[in-house]
Each structure stands twice: as structure tokens, then as C-alpha cells.
Amino acid sequence: MEKYLSQLNEAQLEPTIQKDGPMIIIAGAGSGKTRVLTYRIAYLMNQGVDAFNILSLTFTNKAAKEMKERISTIVGSGEAKNLWMGTFHSVFAKILRFEGHHLGFPSNFTIYDTQDSQRLMGSIIKEMGLDKDIYKTKQIYSRISSYKNSLITVKAYFNNPELKEADAMARRPKMGEIYKEYVDRCFKAGCMDFDDLLLRTNELLTRFPAVLAQYQDRFRYILVDEYQDTNHSQYLIVRALADRFQNICVVGDDAQSIYAFRGANISNILNFQKDYDGVKLFRLEQNYRSTKNIVHAANSVIEHNETKLDKVVWTANDEGGKVKVHRSLTDGDEGRYVASTIFETKMNNQLQNSDFAILYRTNAQSRAMEDALRKREIPYRIYGGLSFYQRKEIKDVTAYLRLILNPSDEEALKRVINYPPRGIGQTTIDKLMVAANGYGKTIFELLENLDKVDIKINAGTKRKLSDFTTLIKSYQVMNETANAFDLAEHVTKTSGLMREFNKDGTPEGITRLENVEELLNGIKDFVEGQMELADASDSLAEFLEDVALATDLDADKGDVDHVALMTIHLAKGLEFNHVFIVGLEEDLFPSAMSMNTRSELEEERRLFYVALTRAEKQAYLTYALSRYRWGKLVDSEPSRFIEEIDDEFLEILTPTEERRINPMLSADIFGDSKSKIVNPNKIRYKPAKKPVLKKGGTAAKKEPEKFQVTTPKNLKPVAKTTAIDASNTNTNLFDSELAVGSLVKHIRFGNGEVLKIEGAGADVKAEINFQHGGVKKLLLRFAKLEVIG
DNA sequence: TTACGTACATTTTTT
DNA sequence: ATGTACGTAA
């Protein structure tokens, strides 16, 4: 242990060996907080605290796993095994498996992900006959989610006239009824959504003092990482559990609070000292990660926030290169710049792909980056977005597994009852739902007793229904004895899922099959891992829980060396040698949705701070003058965040005077006449500021259509093998290029022959006979075709 | 009941 | 540009 403690600096050592009592560690970016947390846990165990009595809550499962491994190397894996470590959601899901029965939940409750929850919400809104344009599923879902995170139960909602008033004002007077129905339906289905895992834990600890006492006694030492991103619900759980021993250690950085949108409450960390008596405060301010230029640049940005704790992050590291700022014309150019910079930097400095990360504000931005990386043949991996487990084919398989485990799971049932198609249509399902509600039974219970129930379904359909029921029941029987892998494999083969996936031979269909394959392999790995743990008691249930709570970051596939692409949110806690922060444009970053209030803008700024502090050696900030959004080319201007960085830490690679690649590009050719036109209609909130980084001209902004016609791409001679750019709106091109009889290549359908060309202007369509997929009619404006002859 | 076409909305971030 | 929703034809 001594050996390890000697690796810490003084500021880190103090909190590490502070054993008892409440404490808070304000840890600046890159200051080694994970190391402190890890060593502190090891130290506690070294001091005789039983691993069994330590609860450590992390932000991702991956962080938990890594921490556990590091602790194992210090104290031995036998000891570390008993540590309870994980995200709030996964830890309390486990506790609810044991204790949920107090609340009327079965121990095999299933977990609804966002998709399931929203589907359920959607069908409730539909059943209640409400206007779906006013009651927008997503909005209703997030509203209810925020109620739950603030511990506003259905009852509390109805007792709160202000809330009802607010929803009525928003023309949604039925909000409470929807909320109630949603909660009832989840309960009846034996399901919990993400928020329930916390809310129900609170309910459990509040209503059952004996249970609370039991866990208080168990968790004598509690550590919470990323405390700045806890919501009210999590805050109360921690308070309740720590109340008895008061050995609570929270770690966080107010400057990195970026989850307010999902209920995180920054005042949890700001007010921690008021919540407990005799709180010891520690600060970690030395950054070991980044160069001086990066640290100082980040500091100068965060200075613009009003709400923050007093803290000065500094570093003894090298000066390093200045933060590079690059402007491109379009998002496509931005991608090409990033890709070629990675390519060259890698060559010149003998770096690996994994030394680079591309961070963006929204998932949609990944596409331009992907295209460019692919052209350069740079391996990359996209983290987040549609995660593996959310893909349709994977959800189809897991829905069967969920249903086996918990036949009440309504969303799982609705998903598979007619998939693969077995002649059970919407009408039948609707009838079943109505009847189920009438009898107060679940749909599956109804299915088991079809002949005893008064329901108007014809005999043929009834047979189909009972076949389905028998099928599921046979799986349930198998689940008694078989392990999760054998069962899953059996299900995919015998349910017709495999046949269904096999049916289409398109490249996407093959990808789907591969995904299912991968899922099965994953289950196999999981089962084998469980065997080693000796108790393969309920492998299916545990696997499904892992699936529901997994983040993309957690998945650790033995990947080849790759560049990482992810949103900034996902990048929290990670570090990379070289970091590209792309799309630094007003309305994108900061997001247009987040500029209404000061606090929203400050969160965006913290997000930028997080992004910048991911970089160890070199940070790049890039933006484009126009980019595709909603399928249209939209002009944009540089983000205020660039301007907020002190000039001395920046290197502007593309100085204000625009490089004119092509004289036609200069918007100035339209002259002063246009720039004198003032558009009085353009009113837009903008704090007083003068962009330091001006763009070439303003005419383009006002007359985008005219401007586009002169885009240089259109003027370039198009070689035979040139891919037709989707951004190209000059349709004359197609006439000269494509003719009946031309041979073309499509990224998805392969080679094909043009049979017919029709339409005019932007709507030119071609009918093409493809090798794969047969005859298709494609809009040339969108289809990326390569002319090959 | 299903399959297919057209219309439509949709982009902020996630456990 | 992509996914979903709804209507119509088979």
C-alpha cells in the first residue's frame, strides 16, 4: 500500500487517507481523481474495512469495471470481488431485484429502455384519443421523466395545483392522466423504466425503514463519482444511505456538469457542505493531462460562467502547441480537413489511430466525418448513437428473451407477437388490449385463457394466438434448465426470426444477421463468465439487465486500432492525445435549443470545457461556413466559444481574409449592393459581440440560392468516375452525365443499368436495373451514383 | 392482413 | 436524409 500512496502528490494523498466522515473532493479536469478514488478504496480496505461494506457509485459501468480491476491489482482480486461498484442505475436495479417485492414488483421485472417507454407512452396517448401534435410522445416522456427525477409521483402531481396549472397552460391538461396510466401500465407489466430504478429505490427506502436500516448498515462507506451530475432522486438515495455512518465521499467538478437536461442538479455539489456536518473539503487543482496551452485556453473559456466554485486549474506540463482553429467551407470540407490532418499527423509523429478523437455536439455530425475517414482509409469507431442493443434486430431477439422471463412485459409482447409475421394483425392486438384492460389482466394471461374469455376473435386467429402462446411457454420451460446462450440460440432458430432475417439478401440484411450472430456470441461470453463466478443462477435475467443498462462505451470489443468518434457527453472522463472538436458554430454548439437562458448557455460552455480538456497534447477547433442540416445547406457562423478563448492560446490556421480557391466563390462578386440590404426581419438573440473571425462576405448569407449555383464543384469538369456529390444542386450536370443505357454503381445496390430518366430540375429520377435489388427509381439529387460506363 | 407507396416530421445531449 | 405513420391495393 505504501508503494501506491507514494505515487500521489500531497493534494491527492490527503483525501485518499481521510478515512471517516463526510468529505468532498473538488477535482479539476485531469487532476487524477480516479486515481484518488481507487487508492482511497484500497486504503479503506487496507485499514480493515470489509469490501462488503463499501459502495462506490460511478458514472459508467466501464469506469466501475476499470476501477475494480485497478483495485484488484492492489489488494488482490479475492478481496475486491465483494465491492459493490457500478452506476446508480445498475446498483439499484440489483437491490430492487431483492427488495422489489415490497413494492409489488416481481424479482424478474424487466427494464424498459427509452424506446420501450416512448412506445408505451405513444400508445397511451393514442388510446386516450389525444391529439398527438399537442401531446408529443417525446415531450411527454421527458416531462414525466423529469417529474420522476424530482420525486414528483402521480399522487404528488395531482396534489400540486401549480404543476397541473403549468401543464394546462401548455395545453396539456391530460398530463396527469397520462402519467398515471403510464405508471400503472409499467407496474402491471412488471417493468421499470430508467427513472423508476431510482424513484422506486427512493420509495423502497422511504416506506420500509427496515430495508433502509439494512442497507445503511451494509454501506458504511459510500463514494460517489461525478457528483455534479447527480439528480434529485440520486441525491436523496445517497443521503438516505449515508445518514447513519456519514462516511460519504463525493467527487466532482462543477465546471464539468453537463447533464442538467436529464435532471442533474448542479446545486447538489454546490451545497454539499450544507448537507452534512463537518464536511472536509479537498481540492485537486493540478492537471496532469494537458499542456499549458490547453489548460489555459479551457480556463479562459470557463471564466465566462457566473455560476461556479472557486478553483484554479494549473499544470506543470509543457507549453505544448497552441489550440488550432480551422475554418472550412462546408461540413464535408471540415471532414476532409480533419481526416487529412489525422493522416499527416499520424505519419509525422508515429502516432496510432487511437491517439485521435473527434468530438461533436450532435450525433448527426458523425456522418461527414465518417465519409472523410473512409475515403482516407482511416479506421474509426463511432461510439454512442444508436447503440448495438437498440438496433431493431437485436431488440427483436431480446424482446423474446424478455417475454420468456417476464410474460407481463407488454412492450416486448407487442413487439414479437406478430414478428415474424404470423397473421396476427393490429385489430386483434387492439382487441386483446381492450379485453386485458377490462379484465385487469395482462395480455399474456389473457392469451393463456383465450377460450374462457369473452372476446370476438375468429377461430383461425385464435389458433394463431394459441400457437404463439404455446411457443413462448415452451421457451419458458426450456429456460428452467438451459443456459441463456442455448436458449437464445434455440429461440432465434425456432421462432422464425432467423428465417425472417435470412430472407432478404441485401447488404443490410446480412449486417443484421451478423449483428444477431454477435449478440449470440455476447451471450455465450456472458454465460461463460458467469460459470467462472460459480453461480450461474439466473444468467438470462442478469444478461438482460446488463443489456438494458449498457452504454456503448462499456462494450469492449477487441477492436483494431481506431480513431474514436463520439459526442462530447460520451467523452466525459476520457482522454486523447489529439482532440478535434468539430462543428463549432452558433446554433450547433452552443445548440440553438440551449440559448434561451443563461444557465442553459452556461451548461453548453461547460460542455465545451469538457471537450477541450479531453486533449493531452493538441486540440483542434473546427467550424464550417455552411453545413447540411435537415437535408439543406445552411449558413452558419463561428461559435462564440472560439472567441471566448484568449487569443494568446490560439493559432488561427485560416485567417480572416478568406483564401480564394476559386474566384467564383467569393461572395463579394455580388458586390456592395447586396450587403447594403438590411433585413429587418432577422431578429435573433445575440449578446453584444463582434465576431473576431469574420467570414468572407455577407451576400452569400442573404442569397443562398444564387450563391449555390456558383459553387465551384459544379464548374469542375466531371470525370467519368467522379462520384456525384449529394450536395450538388445543379441538375444540368445529370443530363450530360447520365443517359439511358449508362452503367452506374450504387453504394448499396451495386452495379446497374439506367433504364429511364424522367423529371426535370431537382426532381430528375432515373429508373435503374440493379444487380442487387432489381429495378429502382432513384432521385438523382440524393442517390450517390458513380458512373462507370 | 400485408406490402408498398407517399407524406411528414425530424436533430441536443443519455442512464 | 432518414425513419415513421398512414392510406391504399393485393
TrEMBL record:
Reactions catalysed, semicolon-separated, are: ATP + H2O = ADP + phosphate + H(+); Couples ATP hydrolysis with the unwinding of duplex DNA by translocating in the 3'-5' direction
Recorded GO cellular component terms are:
cytosol; DNA helicase complex
* Gene Ontology process terms (BP): recombinational repair
GO terms for MF: 3'-5' DNA helicase activity; ATP binding; ATP hydrolysis activity; DNA binding
Name of a matching Pfam family:
UvrD_C
Q: What is its EC number?
A: 5.6.2.4
Key words, A-Z: ATP-binding, DNA-binding, Helicase, Hydrolase, Isomerase, Nucleotide-binding
Record InterPro entries: DExx_box_DNA_helicase_dom_sf, DNA_helicase_UvrD-like_C, DNA_helicase_UvrD/REP, P-loop_NTPase, UvrD-like_ATP-bd
Do the record's keywords include Hydrolase?
yes
Keyword field contains DNA-binding: yes
Binding positions (ATP): A27, G28, A29, G30, S31, G32, K33, T34
Top-level lineage group:
Bacteria
Supply the enzyme class, top level: isomerase
Query: Where does the UvrD-like helicase C-terminal domain lie?
Result: 292-573
- UvrD-like helicase ATP-binding domain: from which residue to which, for each copy? 6-291
Q: Which family does it belong to?
A: Belongs to the helicase family. UvrD subfamily.
This chain's protein is named: DNA 3'-5' helicase
What species does this protein belong to? Flavivirga aquatica
